[in-house]
Structure formats: C-alpha cells, structure tokens
Amino acid sequence: MPISWYPGHMHKARRELGTLLRGARLVIEVLDARIPAASSNRLLASMRGETPTIRILNKTDLANSRLTAAWQTHFSRLRNSACLANGKEAPVDRGRLLKQIRRLGGIPSERSPSRGSIAIIGIPNVGKSSLLNYFIGRKLARTGNTPSITRTQQSARFAADWTLVDTPGMLRPKLEDQQAALLMASVGSIGAAAADRAEVAQFLAGCLLSGHRNALIERYRLNETDKTPEALFDRIAVARGALRKAGAADIAKAAEILLQDFRSARLGRISLESPPDPDLRQT
Ligand SMILES: Nc1nc2c(ncn2[C@@H]2O[C@H](COP(=O)(O)OP(=O)(O)OP(=O)(O)O)[C@@H](O)[C@H]2O)c(=O)[nH]1
Ligand SMILES: [Mg+2]
Q1: How many domains does the chain have?
Q2: At 178, is the pLDDT very low, low, confident or very high (cuts 50, 70, 90)?
Q3: What spacing in Å lies between the alpha carbon of 56 and ligand 2's midpoint?
C-alpha cells in the first residue's frame, strides 16, 4: 500500500500558511538531518517562492556529523539562503541565527511591522516547535514525539524586531515520491496509521543492510551471510529475545526493535541521504 497522509487539519493549515507566507519576510525551514532531501517539502518550496530561507538541519545528534557538514555546505550554496545545524549535543547559536536573519531579511520597517514575521515551516515531527521554544527561551509551544502535535499557528516575539511563527507540520496532499515517504516514515514523520510499520521496517532494513552493515553486526551480531531484511529480523529476534513460545522469531517485534533502535540512534548516528553535489559526496 502506498503511503499517503494528509489529515484534515493540514487542509486548513495549508490555507493559513499561504496567508502567513504572503506577509513573511523570511522562512526558517526545519529539516531532519538524517534525511535532508526527503524532508524538504516541495509543496513548501513552491509556497515560499522567493522568500529568503534559513534551513536548519535539526536532530544532528542523531545524524552522521560528516554528512551533516556536507549538507550544510550544499544548502548554503543556494541563492538567498543560509543553513544552520541544531541538535541536542550542539544547539544552534541564537546570535548566529540573528546574524543570518538580519543578513537575509534586513530590518523590518516601522510602517509594516508584520513584514518582520518569520515562518517556521517543515514536515511533521522535525522539531519546529522545540526550536521556537528554544529561540524565545520559554516553553510556549507544545512538543512531542508523534507527528502533527501542532495544529494551529503560534507566534512569539524574538529579538525585539521579529515575530517567529510556529506552524503545523505539512506534507504534500499526494506523496508521489514513495522513497521519500518511506524515509519520512523511517524517522517518524508520518502518522502511525498511515504507514505500515512492517513495511517501513523492511525498507529501513534494506537501507541499513546496504550502507551500514557494521552497525548491524555490532548491535545484532549480523553475519556476513545475512543479506536480506528477513535474515536481519531473525538475527534481531535472537539477539534481543524477540521469540515466540516455540522459539520462532517474532518478526513484528524484531521490526519494531529495528525502528526504535534507529530512531533513537542506538545503532549509532546514521544519515540515510547524501548531498547530490559530487564534490561533497566524497568529503
Ligand atoms: N534527538 C533530538 N530530538 C529532538 C530535537 N529537536 C526536537 N526533538 C524531539 O523531536 C520531537 C518532535 O519535536 P516537535 O518540536 O514537537 O516537532 P514539530 O516539528 O513541532 O512537530 P509537529 O508539530 O508535529 O509538526 C520531540 O520529541 C522533541 O523532543 C533534537 O535536536 N534532537
Ligand atoms: Mg510542532
């Protein structure tokens, strides 16, 4: 079954976002550092048009730091843009953010203070509300580790001249790119009911088997001969005691363990995408 998730509140959120973006002076697009391309929403790209954009690669504490640096260079090369990184181990510096806001957004005019609005946008569960709270230094917006916690926009003053606006996580009405949808589901940005967890785990297992075997060997004692997701799930079931009464592997439980271990970086800091620039792929 293809993944498709466009819950009712996103219709309304899209209309409200359109209005906000018409007046916004700047956009902060929050991306998941593990999947910077898949978490770049093309709907949001077309809605924000030429508005200067600061991308924040978020959750860098869960991502590969070499690839995060490469993605930062990639996004910084885009016109009218800046790219910063944020994670639990190294929060983005508020002063650096403000410097980029002033560089790209100029000074809001006295006559139209609303042009000092900065829209914080992104797909669900990437950490938009957490960043708003961090920037303003208090817990205004509700946060949580399930997608679509935020249902309405919420504004707060930031550094005298600016208004930060947190927005609900948005997806495209139709997820044509199913590879991107599976990547978003792998990091937990798609509602649980919209993506079959076994299928998502199967996809993730394929990614990890092809690019991150060492992590699997270390955590689940994967063998050289284990090449398929099924073999990996068997290995996980044995290593983690996910067994049925007769001693057979509990595949559903093993799949769940893989998803949880990946999402919490218990397999190490793994990024699932590399930047397209040939010079950056090698660094
Ligand atoms: N490991 C890690 N977790 C983070 C980071 N930033 C946010 N989170 C967690 O990610 C989850 C989602 O954060 P939110 O701020 O609610 O995300 P959101 O983008 O506002 O989500 P929606 O409102 O649902 O679209 C929460 O459990 C946060 O604690 C980070 O830098 N590192
Ligand atoms: Mg939120």
Answers
A1: 2
A2: very high
A3: 15
Residue 226's domain comprises 196-281
Establish if 151 belongs to a structural domain: yes
How far, in Å, from the CA of 5 to the mean position of ligand 1? 19
Residue 44 belongs to a domain with what CATH number?
Answer: 3.40.50.300
Q: Which of 147, 166, 185 is the last residue of a domain?
A: 166
Give this prediction's pTM.
0.96
Residue 126, classified by CB atoms within 10 Å of its CB into exposed (0-12), middle (13-18) or buried (19+), is: buried
Place of tokens 């843009």: 81
The predicted-structure confidence for 227-254, as pLDDT tens digits, reads as follows 999 999 999 999 999 999 888 999 999 9
Can you say whether residue 37 is alpha, beta or left, with left for phi > 0 and alpha for psi between -120 and 50 degrees?
A: alpha
Clarify whether residues 162 and 209 are in a common domain: no
- Best residue among 130, 133, 264, 270 to mutate for probing ligand 1's pocket (most ligand atoms within 8 Å of CB) is 130
Ligand 1 atom nearest to CA at 169: 25
Nearest CA to ligand 1 atom 16: 143
